[in-house]
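Notes continue from the previous slide.

Worked example: a multi-chain complex. Inputs as given:
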Amino acid sequence: MKSLTITSTRTAAGKTTVGLGIALNSGLKCGYYKPYGDHLVYSKKNLHDLDAMVFHDWLELGNEVLDGTLGFDADKIISTWNRQELDAVLKNNLEAIAKGKDIMLVETARNYSFGGHMDMDSVSLAQRFDSDILLVAEGDVPLILDKVMAISKCLEGMVKLKGIVVNKVSEEDREKIEIEIPPVLERRGIKLLGILPKIQELKRGTMRLVLEKLNANIVAGSDGLDKVIEVVQVGALSAEQAMKMPTFFKDNKALITGGDRADLIFASLNTNTAGIILTNNILPHPKIIAKAEDMNIPIISVHMDTFTTAKAVEHIVAEITPGDEDKKQLIKDMAKKELDMDAILN
Amino acid sequence: MSSARTNLEKLFNPSSISIIGASAREGSIGFNLVQNLQISGYAGKIWPVNPKYPEVLGLKCFSALEDTPEAAELTLVAVPAENVNDVIRRSCEKGARMFIIISSGFDEVGRHDLTHELLTILKQYNARTLGPNVFGVFSASSNMNATFGPPQVRRGNVGLISQSGALGVALMGKSVSDNIGLSAVVSLGNEADISEGEALEYLGQDPATEVIFMYMEGCKEGRHFMEVANRVSMTKPIVIIKSGSSSRGALAAASHTGSLAGSDKIFSAAIKQAGVIRAFNLTDAFNWTRALANLPLPTAEGTVIVTNGGGVGVMASDSAERYDVKLNDNLEMLERIFRPTMPAFGSSKNPIDVTGQARNEEYGLALKASLEEETIPSVVGLYCTPATMDVLKFANTAVEYTANLRGKKPLIFSIIGGGSVPEAIRILNEHNIPCYETPDEAMSAMGVLYKRWKWLNKEPGIPEEFDMDLKAIRAIIDAAHEKNQTQLVESDCAEILRLAGLEFPKTAIARDLDEAIKASEDIGYPVVMKILSQDIVHKTEYGCVKLDLEDEREVRVAYESIMAEARRHFPRARIEGVTITEMVTDATEMILGFSMDQSFGPVLMFGMGGIYVEVLKDVSFRVAPISKQECEHMVKAINSYPILAGARGKAIRDLPKIVEAISRLSYLAMHTPDILELDINPLMALAKGKGCKVVDSRMTISKVQRNKNMEEKA
């Protein structure tokens, strides 16, 4: 069984995006395994990894993909299995998932070194599964080269580094990457297997996702939770000033502000808004809540401050989620165009 | 004779008055004070003092206060603020002990130093003062108008107390035009010495005063005022109009109880408990005062409306519902009494519609019949002025037909129309038949009579005593003080409530997964799992609470999820394990708590709980301590009470247990001055017989120890 371990130079570099891009364009029966979870989703009294849920949904894989994740907490894994047992359970799980598949994609948690103290880092997993490593990199050219070269030296003689994919590349940086990175990589025989652009459309999520991920309280408009957020707006200005900002009138915005900012919330309700996220657990006047309910615009409330909430929401909307057909198509098209599939699969 | 009556007797009934700052200049305050005393027919000695004038309004004017024949029993001071304390000291040396300081320029402009000096002088000589910054005192019993307000005051049985000078003067004027007679008027001003409570207590004991009307802006000693008001309300109705509600305190509060209990809500709750009737506008205040001052209270429910117009009858019926006035529905009696008095097409169903065709005499007969019938406890008369009728004749007919019957039961009127209607209304008011311009005002006044009747007849109750381990409660609070905590940790908070006798769902602490599974099995599924860590406050928001776990698999999954979330969000938190709690199902989420108000002391709050508590604001307040009966009233006072009482086929909640929980909190609040705010949210109200259980609570304690009393009690 051919397998490829996908890891990254840093957390949230785009392992899942690259893995999905490969799976959706390979023309092969692809299996997916994420042994160590890092995107915990507790839903309907089940605990799954979000990335595994996406592969399960998009590739129509069996439930063993969801159940194969050993845990999300090092203490739990260490206390449940000793080293030998861990080897056995990982191999068993991989075999169960790989049944009937042409190729297995194994995704690590966070980055190439994460999980090292219990032998669940990228090298340990690749050795265990006898697979090559595909490294996803993100950042500016010097940073990418520093990381990739250092990692490749560590891998030497242990596992094969198949190549790297650079992700989230802006249009203006692309040429620099194309010119400067390959010559340095070639010194160590590493291939650049693709450059994936930064796509704004990938940063979109639903209010329901934000509600669940933030463990927020729903205040109004629960029927509108599946509206898609296309832009996140932080409401720090007065309503008058905010109304002068072009982004305030962008369709399907999510407004993040305090419940005491009645003017801004009111103005937001009167423009095209996907939802309102109230911070510091301050709720607005009941009339505003009633208006949002009438308009079916969700208002959710969190206890965090506006800055922390904004950071969290930015992260959440960038996540890939099951059922998001738009993102699926975007990733498929992007990967088809940008990834060297032959080099990756052979 | 009680202390207030003794202490303030010279303020209302002095045998001599000196006016320091009297003036011969027409229109000046010093002139008006002397003039009003003369016009009102004050029979005592009046000694104007001012070196500028040899005489004022025909009275000898003394050049210095030392020159008066003797120390006056009451001294009015109307000199610039800077000179007031000198005047007070010299007067005291001469022997004066009671003052009214008309002058302004003290606390209200930031001159706290002058007030401080004034109080020192008063204390030194054991003297008393009203004010500073007042318009004076009127006392009908001594024919004394020692104010610079209106010279003509209509005498009667209403005592007026005002914290506002300008409005107080205006109210005196309005009482004349509204046919409300005054027994006394007191302007309180800055209340450097004599407070609203003391003035109220005096008028409460004044034989000439039967109704007390107060205008208030603030309440310095809330609890004392409430006690006095409660005492006075037992014998005399008090109508209060209060302006000024602050939201500042609410913003600073940490708990739901604190933030919902704005100072105005607490004031409202407190005076309601004390039987005081609160008006929110001057029209209501005067309307109600007029009704209370002129009418006896009803002795039963079942008001009859007599009308000559169907429309106004319906309007009055709507208002009756709004003001909780129950209408008489004894159809047999109504038919028997009223049928002979009306045209064939009139209606003897309440409202009694004698129709617009009825002549004055027919209306008069219906009115007379309603007053004569013993089973009718109160009557509202409505009159729409027909185009062909003389409304003044109707007014005189109404007076004539009720002549010997008034005073036995409340009779309130409303006359609607133009032309001579104001004069007709005046005629009825002159004959002690309160008459208003709209049916709603009439019914509102009737509602107030019933409100007072119900308050006077409510079952008296005393706060319950509980066998609480106050010493153990104190020990928990002391330990928190030693750790400089002001927000008690959840376990301490729960322990205090347990010691107070409140019920909790079955709970166990589990240090690891195996213990969590065992605890879940021991308690019985379904269970709730929560992280146990002093460092994690917002447990739910960070995914550290899992509900409704129904088997071992779900406990395992929940445990892993909680631990992973806790470590992700709080990598440095000290995690002691998890708590496993019985899952409370089929319960109504309530909120119960108290907060320590600076003026009124502990204030209890009860209402609908859950996450929307601050949106719905369906809560009721009471100043602790309260009796079991008052606890029941508190429960019934919320809008959602029908839900607790089993509306829409839902099982009735365990109301006795809810009442007991409130009662226990009332006792706890009175014995733990260190607890500044306490929220139980939610308090799960289960079905009848199953109790109510505390699911979450929050407690804020004082920074320094305040509970010495509790130690003695313990």
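Summary box: Confidence is low (pLDDT under 50) at residues 246-261, 709-714 of chain B. The interface with chain A takes residues 538, 540-543, 546, 548-550, 554, 557-558, 560-561, 563-565, 567-568, 611-612, 614-616 of chain B (CB under 8 Å).
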